[in-house]
Fold:
Amino acid sequence: MQSSPARARLTEHKRAVVKIGTTSLTYANGELNLQRIERLCWVLADLYNRGKEIILVTSGAIGVGANCLGMERPRDIIGRQTASAVGQAMLMQIYQNFLRTYNRTAAQILLTRDCVNDISRRENAHNTIAKLIELGAVPIVNANDTIATDELTEFSDNDTLGAYVAAFSDSALLVMLTDIEGLYDKNPRTHPRATLFREAHEVTPKMESAAGGSGSNLGTGGMIAKLNAARYALENGIDAVIANGEDPAILLRIFAGEEEGTLFTTT
Structure:
């Protein structure tokens, strides 16, 4: 299938934010999917070798930490902080080990909402990310859940975080990897004939309805959050893609302009 002009222009994008969700990083039992994480690191390193500049926004710290501590996934603040403190260390060690295999260095950046809202802190984060990329390191961003305690410092989700990072880091593309191929007009898990939205220039009410509310399977899985992140990206002149992260090599195909996932394009 021939790529659309908007897909073809993805090949020209140099800097991008890739957000990967917990379900793409772990097995159903909560344990880390090390094979997938290693493949993700290989893809990131290969993209860097091609001249791309990738900022990774990773989920998984709370879930991994909770599983390691033998906890149910916590909903209270102190529980999330405790699980995150353990999970962040585990995740970064794994990313660092795998990236070193491919001659890249991982750099951890933990953000709270005030880092985005405050001009000075946002500029500091921008400059740090830019310098890390200049030196060939892979910035790995997550919310600083160990100190975030209220709505003033917490991000509602990492899709939102990814969109904010894309905006202040001067990225041209936001890719959100999840456990589904993209945005469908109906829940594909219950509607086998559901149709995938391939390309759009805006987030429409029809799309929001298709994503479902907080009580639906897709809404619970975060599709509403991804649409909100896509809208924020478009408002800031950034293309966005929602795609399946089961095989991280999908990033190579996205950057090659192939028809993968749902593309929200500014052009």
